[in-house]
Amino acid sequence: MLDHIGLPISDYARSLAFYKAVFAPLGYGLVMEVTPEMTGDGSSAAGFGKGKPDFWIGTSDRQARMHVAVAATDRASVRAFYEAAMAAGAKDNGPPGIRAHYHEHYYGAFVLDPDGHNIEAVCHAPEA
């Protein structure tokens, strides 16, 4: 069900060093960084894992919010998730589409739940 999770942090450099140190003994490492230039909003993020980033940390103007991404089997499911969420009262946080700064086939949609948590549906497969 879960594809990845993200924690908001207050000090990027401090948290990056911390998670590099604590995950190393477990065989997890830094897989990807997303720069402020890539996000376009001044935030930074780092993804840790084994091959694929499963655990993310990042700065944001919404420091108290969580990010949870649910795996979708195809792009149609991502679109259906987004439509259902909007109909249920979610706030748009990024409509369905390619997020090439993650990878070329990353197709996701983002909504804010009633408490402001960033909930995502994502499909990593190329369009069929």
UniProtKB/TrEMBL annotation:
Pfam families: Glyoxalase. It comes from the Bacteria. Gene3D superfamilies: 2,3-Dihydroxybiphenyl 1,2-Dioxygenase, domain 1. SUPFAM superfamilies: Glyoxalase/Bleomycin resistance protein/Dihydroxybiphenyl dioxygenase (SSF54593). Transmembrane segments: none annotated. InterPro entries: Glyas_Bleomycin-R_OHBP_Dase, Glyas_Fos-R_dOase_dom, VOC_core. Residues 1-124 form the VOC domain. This is VOC family protein. It comes from Luteimonas gilva.
